[in-house]
Design goal:
Among the domains are: about 90 residues; about 80 residues, Fusion Protein Consisting Of Minor Coat Protein, Glycine Rich Linker, Tola, And A His Tag, Chain: A, Domain 2, CATH 3.30.1150.10. The protein is mainly α. It starts with a helix and ends with a strand. The protein has a three-stranded antiparallel sheet, with helices on one face. The chain contains five helices and three strands, in the order ααααββαβ.
Length: about 290
C-alpha cells in the first residue's frame, strides 16, 4: 500500500484540459463522417436526361408544280421577203506605172557606187588613224630613248665630276702633307729624307727595337724538339710604362703547340723588356718568334 502511495506521489501531474480535447476530437470525427455520407448520397442521385429528335427524309424529293392552264398560241404573221440589191459594177483595175528599166539600173549603180565610196572613205580614215597611232608611238619611243640617253650622259658626267673632285681632293691632301712635312722640317723634325710622317719625332718603336726584344726573350726559350720547317708564332705583349710585362696573348699559332707554349713561357720568364732609343717602351707590341732564327 505504501508503494502505491509513493508511486502516485512521484507521478507526473495530470494534463490540463484532457477532457475538452477528447470532446473536440469526437466532434471533428462526427462532422467528417456526416460530410462523407452526404457526398456519397449526392453522387447516387440520378441525373434527369432531356433529348429532342426531328424526322427527315433519307433522299430530298421536290414537290410537283400546280396544274395551270396553257395560254393561247399567238397568230402567225408572215414577214415580207427583202428585195434583191442591185449588182455593183466591178472596180477598174489600176495598172502599175511602167518604170524605166535603164533609169532603175542607173539608180542602183549610183547607190552601189556611193556605198563603195563610203567604204573606201572609212578604210582611208582607219588607215590614217593607224598611221597616226604608229607615228605617235614612234615619237614616244624616240622621246623615251632621248630621255634615257640624256640620263645616261648626265650619269656619266656626274661620275666624271665625282672622279675629278676625288682626284682634286687627293692632290690637295698630298699637297697639304708636303706642306706639313716642309713645315716640320723647318721646325726641326728628326726624320730621315724618306720619312713620310708629319710629327717632329717618330712615336713608334725604332727599326732595331724588335730585334732587341727577341734577343732579350729568346735566351729564355726552352725547346728541344726537332721541328720541320720554320713556323712563326705571333704574340701580342702589353707592357707598363717602365717596361714590365703585364699581359701576353698568342695571336697566330705556329702549328706546333710545344713551340707556342715555349715562347709564352719565355715571355713570362723575361718579365721586363728593354727601352727603345727614345727611352720609352711601347704599351703594345706584336712580336714574331721562329725556332730556327
Amino acid at each position: 500500500m505504501n508503494a502505491v502511495v509513493d508511486r502516485l506521489e512521484f507521478a507526473p501531474p495530470p494534463t490540463a484540459g484532457l477532457l475538452r480535447s477528447l470532446l473536440l476530437a469526437l466532434l471533428a470525427h462526427a462532422l467528417l463522417v456526416a460530410a462523407l455520407t452526404w457526398g456519397v448520397h449526392w453522387r447516387r442521385e440520378a441525373e434527369p436526361l432531356s433529348a429532342e429528335a426531328e424526322l427527315w427524309a433519307s433522299v430530298p424529293v421536290a414537290a410537283a408544280p400546280k396544274l395551270e392552264e396553257l395560254p393561247p398560241e399567238p397568230p402567225v404573221v408572215e414577214t415580207p421577203k427583202p428585195k434583191p440589191l442591185p449588182e455593183l459594177a466591178p472596180e477598174p483595175v489600176v495598172q502599175p506605172p511602167k518604170v524605166d528599166i535603164a533609169l532603175e539600173k542607173e539608180k542602183q549603180r549610183k547607190l552601189k557606187q556611193h556605198e563603195l565610196e563610203q567604204q573606201q572613205e572609212k578604210l582611208k580614215t582607219e588607215k590614217a588613224k593607224r598611221d597616226k597611232a604608229t607615228l605617235d608611238k614612234a615619237k614616244l619611243d624616240k622621246i623615251k630613248a632621248d630621255k634615257l640617253k640624256q640620263e645616261l650622259a648626265d650619269k656619266t658626267k656626274h661620275e666624271q665630276e665625282k672622279k675629278q673632285e676625288a682626284l682634286q681632293t687627293k692632290q690637295l691632301e698630298a699637297q697639304r702633307q708636303k706642306n706639313l712635312q716642309r713645315m716640320a722640317g723647318l721646325a726641326g723634325a728628326s726624320g730621315g729624307p724618306s720619312a713620310t710622317g708629319t710629327a717632329l719625332k717618330a712615336a713608334g718603336p725604332s727599326a732595331s727595337y724588335a730585334g732587341r726584344i727577341r734577343a732579350r726573350i729568346k735566351p729564355n726559350i726552352v725547346f728541344t724538339e726537332d721541328i720541320s720547317g720554320n713556323p712563326a708564332a705571333e704574340v701580342e705583349v702589353r707592357t707598363a710604362p717602365e717596361g714590365s710585362i703585364i699581359a701576353r696573348k698568342l695571336l697566330k699559332s705556329s702549328g706546333n703547340k710545344a713551340w707556342d707554349d715555349a715562347v709564352l713561357k719565355a715571355i713570362d720568364k723575361t718579365e721586363v723588356l728593354p727601352r727603345d732609343t727614345d727611352g720609352r717602351v711601347p704599351p703594345v707590341l706584336e712580336i714574331s718568334f721562329k725556332p730556327k732564327d
